[in-house]
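Let us begin with a simple case.
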Amino acid sequence: MNQRLATGAATKPGRRQRHFGARRPVGAFEFLQRARDSATGIYTPESFTIDYGIRRLGLQRFVLLNHPDYIKHVLVTNHANYEKGRLTQKMLGPVLGQGLLTSEGALWRRQRRIAAPAFQHRRLTALTETMVDCAARMADRWQEPAAAGKAFDVANEMSVLTMEIVARTLFGSDITDRVGDLRGAIVDILRGFGQPNPMDLMGLPDWLPRRQDPDARRAMRRTNRLVSEILDNRRKAAADRPDLLGMLLAARDPETGEGMSDRQLRDEILTLFAAGHETTATGLTWTWYLLSEHPEVRAKLEAELDATLGGRTPAYADLEHMPYGRMVFEEALRLYPPAFSLSRVALAPDRVGPVRIRTGDLISISPYVTHRNPKLWPDPERFDPDRFLPEQTAARPKFAYFPFGGGPRICIGNNFAMIEARLALAVLAQRYRLSLAEGHPVVPYGRVTLRPRYGLKMRAEKRPAG
């Protein structure tokens, strides 16, 4: 069975959230154009229903997997045979180096062990006060535009919020004055590097020259200077702090006793800043959009917040009494998973279901596609948080839903992100209702993450006391 990679047609937002992409199978040249612009554009309606698809582009063979058992095989059962590979390195390596998101093998295992204690449940619960404080300060800043009826970009606001949370919880309050500069530099870098080069998609050799974005190069130099300043300031302070930056500085190789080089520290700091804030910000952005389009869901969320909190500030202990908020965010991640596509490269031949995998095949696994598979999700375009009632979740295959990936390389910050998002949603939704600015286009844009192409202009209306 030789299927072409396929997605759905672009439509206006409505009660059901339409998938965006090609209306028909696309040729090689159009495929390259679409992949470079927005990766969701390569999918056609067939992509969402097939179990797998195979396509050759130049020297590269692509295999799309869209069946939970096949996805589990690659991410869990035989994960050792699949690594992130050259396409990921080409896109993110210049930005993140050999950080947790891009490294492989022994280096990845070592760095993961070092970072893991910062994300233990005990530590996360201690960070929730900071998360709530950051969200409350943003709610205060929204008073002025809300009173004036002025629209603002919620995508940008969520990015600012989550970057501040990452800075304060993982790296200490002493670097918060550099967060704006660092965030701007990372955005510029990802704009330049965060798209596949057509030559890499076709599997052409590395010795052929690729065009490099001069603006992205300048932003990368700026970022390196900022990270060096962060490290120098912490070393000069000689402070032994129990945050992630302190753990990274204190880490020693058990065999050699050596600490991380400045290059390794730079890679991990940038990875945790970039990945640690971007995915949560994007998930929250889509949540606000979906709530504005579905007032009946918003009303149910507000009723839960009012009954549980009664207007007070939420705490970690409140989360277990607010299951609907969790369900709302999980359903938003289903329709618009920030990490919308994962890729792996086969190191050796394998068989996945009926598919013979060859060495060097690029395996494409897309939460965006699988989360909208009608075989797994009845009426998949409909926004329905009740899909995540416990009995519904238990009845689904595990890899029908995987917004944070899966297997050994599941996102190390997935629990951090869920707690952060639910608390931020509780703080802000208690005080405001957001509505989409009239005429503002909403188009998913698949580059490094699945963001709204034109941002998300919304107006905030202050809620009456519950």
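The second case is a distinct protein. As before, the sequence precedes its structure tokens.
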Amino acid sequence: MKALFTLGLREASERLARGEFTSEALTASCIRRIAALEPQVEAWEWIDDTRALRLARKADERRLAARAGGSAHVADVLPLPERGSLAGIPVGVKDIIETAGIPTRMGSPIYRDYVPVRSAPLLDRLAASGAFVLGKTVATECAFTVPSRTRNPWNLAHSPGGSSSGSAAAVASGMVPGAIGTQTNGSVIRPAAYCGVVGYKPCRGRISTAGMLPFSTTLDQPGVFARSVADAGLLASWLTQSDGVIGRHVTALRSAPGVIALGSPVWYKAEGAMRTRFAADMATLRAGGATVTERELPRAFDDGYRAHRVIMLFEAARASRLVRQHYGARLGRSLREALAEGDGIADEDYRRALAIREELIRLLGEFLDDRFEAIITPPTTGEAPTLESTGDPAFCTLWSLCGAPAITIPTGFGPHGLPLGLQLVGRSGESNHLLAVAAWCEGRMGFKGMLARGERSS
């Protein structure tokens, strides 16, 4: 029998609902996995085993009450096909998202003792699913680019990426079946690709950013990590501000899609292994019947990278001014320098960058016209770098700037045995269709993750 910690979100939730095991057993399996790997991977900022097991037992009690007809929890009472419930599932949460009664340290010593009294609204939505917070996953300092202590579980000498470092590493290594992260530039897509899991960022505005440490209010977007497209869609569906925006059940397209293969203006940054992988992925999709059309973005998108940096650092500098007045010396040098750059950006330059962003959103809508289902492009420049860097987010920048939905799926390995992936980008507002396209592509890739190695212990 498969070890419980190897189960994905959907399989675990369905088997829990059938009574094959308890939430307490699943959670205990995850805790044992964490105990075995955390000294090396260091994915967790805060975790309390006793609390987690208590919450799991409460979930089991609610399930028993529901079966007896006495539950007041809608998610427990509704039949599984109707609810897509996550009842009793433990989830990791990036440590820049506020959690009531639990430390939220933002990856910085400044917030070492900060314990919020309220949880972020997206975690209220998570609670409505029946899931619970297993613990807080490591984030880089204030969700910027300085490497955290977390290591890539595929090779401990390499980075898991950032800034959602712990969330990606924890899901990849079987410590938790799903986790929540955030992205301002490439902080969901990049670590997911480096760690060989699915990373999904719905389009901007789908999930509330309230209760998250703000870096750039225009660009900040929550996202999720899971081990399949269906699991990522299921988790994201519960976090949206309105029910039904993302469906609980992801179904792959019935017919082969038409996609645009895009090197993007930063193709020169792609390493040889990434170029080879992208070509192989295009060939795989074509062999499966997909129409893959290679195109280039309009030249106007060349201005997007600078516009993104201007918006990001202008807003970050202003959001952090009060904190820096009191605690600025405790911030890392790289972050201080970036925020100082933001201080020097003129209001006129910021407004010009916002205008460029609006124009690129319009142009992206025209570029991805009705003939195509999605854009495919690399998620990273190559394999995960060593621990001195969280990697280059350049292949994510334009989609974060435009607020477009994006997802990465693992597709293979590079020369160092580290995962490589494929990023898909959809139209704004078409989250469900992008998930369906990604599920179709995923079904043809045959990638085997870390947990597909016959783990047997529970």
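The chain is about 40% helix and 15% strand. Confidence is low (pLDDT under 50) at residues 77-82.
Keep these points in mind for the review questions at the end of the chapter.
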